[in-house]
Amino acid sequence: MASEAAAETSETYSEFIDTVERLTNVQQAANVLGWDQEVMMPEGGTPARSKQRSALSTLSHELLTSEKMAEMLDELEAEDLDDEQAAVVREVRREHDRAVRVPQDLVEEISQVSSEALPVWKEAREEDDFETFAPTLEKLVELKREYAEHIDPDRDPYEVLFEEYEPYLGVETAERVLARLRDELVPLVEAIRESEADLATDTFAGEFDIDTQEELTRDVLDTLGYDWDHGRLDTAPHPFSTGNQFDARVTTRFSPDEPLGALMATVHEFGHATYTLGLPREHYGTPLGESRDMTVHESQSRLWENHVGRSEAFWERFLPKVKERFPQVSDASVADAYEAANEVYEDNLIRVEADELTYHMHIVVRFEIERDLVRGDIEVEDVPERWNDKYEEYLGVRPDSNAEGCLQDIHWSHGDFGYFPTYSLGSVLAAQLYDSVEDDIEDVDEKIREGDFEPLHDWLTENVHRHGSRYTTDELIRQATGEDYTADYFLDYVKSKYGDLYELDEY
């Protein structure tokens, strides 16, 4: 009897895995269409593309919510599964239980409206006309509220939406961490602005040819170890990375007077891509071969961008390549480049161009506004003024236009309410992980100076990437660092780093 039960379980699990892999491939196809729409598709392709993506979204929903899927999950949860099998069932069960509560026509409508929203947002941003985008934003907010209500009508709708991106840490953790960052970083930024330290902030001032900048971004990807056989670099209005362990693509954007912006954005997206490429290939198509949600994903991008790309050791390695591409900075020292890369801006309005500290106030603004929108505490028409008021309060600057204000980000056009907090949560985790890296890898700074990034790649793959979604977020953090998730390491890191840079005695 025991052997018969084991055989039956094996057959059920095999059928279950076949269905999960089919579901993953439909989702991956939708991701490629999304990448194409943002990178290469002609502007006139939107009507067909929105229907294509909607069809794939509907098919994905059908596979996930089918009666057969429910039956297999019930049967497998009653069996004696090994740890890996149990993890796969846990993750699919979580997604199934959410999706089965949402009507298929609502899923299809959200997909179509969000696809059609992209060109509307682009036009509104280009024309600095919030009223053009407002009706679309209002529709997306309504649809996502309805989506959250179907999943759990008794819970805060923003909390439900947040769990799409970070299902295990909880929105209470996000609120606590963001409040702590706001309370401790605002005084630090104020102290920096009062500092008389004279940093070489004009190191990369001037005009920098766009084509040469692209060559430089390819140089930095080469330096860090990007696998060109399984990726590519393109441009997009908003830098992003997408793909799987066989095909992880990055995008960036260029401005002739902001070469550091493109460089750091590329390093950031490399961090996402190297995580994706580090996922176990043998588990492609199942949760064991998928990333552990957005907090962990953002930790990888922010670790490479800030702890590596903004480090003095990195600039010792990479500055000669910058000088080779741009002779106008031939007199710059490593200290100059390091200081320029870590300048804390007094008047930055754009999140993706923000420095490492004020970046988090950009996130707090978006988090508080989208939370209030979804909860119904403010209306869409209130967004521009509310945005500008919060910028003035938290960042000390007030946007002159909506293009530099509430229209600058692409996320709301996708209906991605609940995504923004994961940027700061990921930055916090990056510091906690990097502290463990420094404990485990002897003289990691020296290895970066030498251009030897393999030990860092190996550590991250061993402790984060190879696990896919086997562990929950909190379990993975404990596995990697030996501790629970905490903001202590991030705050210690930035206070020490920027206290030294800006000669702050109190830090």
What does this 3D model show about the protein?
The protein is mainly alpha-helical. Helix content is about 65%, strand content about 5%. The protein folds into 2 domains: about 130 residues; about 325 residues, Neurolysin, domain 3 (Orthogonal Bundle). Helix 3 packs antiparallel against helix 4. It is globular. About 40% of the residues are buried. The N terminus is likely disordered.
Task: Write the topology of this structure.
Blueprint: H1 2-39, H2 46-65, H3 67-77, H4 83-99, H5 104-127, H6 130-151, H7 157-162, H8 171-194, H9 210-224, E1 233-235, E2 241-244, E3 247-252, H10 259-277, H11 293-308, H12 312-325, H13 334-341, H14 359-375, H15 383-395, H16 421-440, H17 444-449, H18 454-463, H19 473-481, H20 488-501
Parallel strand pairs: 1-3
Antiparallel strand pairs: 2-3
Helix pairs in contact: 1-2, 1-3, 2-5, 3-4, 5-6, 8-14, 8-20, 9-10, 9-12, 10-11, 11-16, 12-13, 14-15, 16-20
CATH class of the largest domain: Mainly Alpha
Order of helices and strands: HHHHHHHHHEEEHHHHHHHHHHH
Structural class comes to mainly alpha
Task: Report the C-alpha radius of gyration, rounded.
Answer: 23 Å
Which architecture name of the largest domain does CATH use?
Answer: Orthogonal Bundle
Low-confidence segments: 1-7
Binned, the helix content reads 55-70%
Largest sheet: 3 strands, mixed
Strand order of the largest sheet: 1-3-2
Number of structural domains? 2
Q: Any idea what the shape is?
A: globular
Put simply, the count of helices is 20
Give the percentage of residues in beta strands.
under 5%
CATH topology of the largest domain: Neurolysin, domain 3
Give the distance, in angstroms, between the N- and C-terminal Cα atoms.
68 Å
How many beta-strand segments?
3
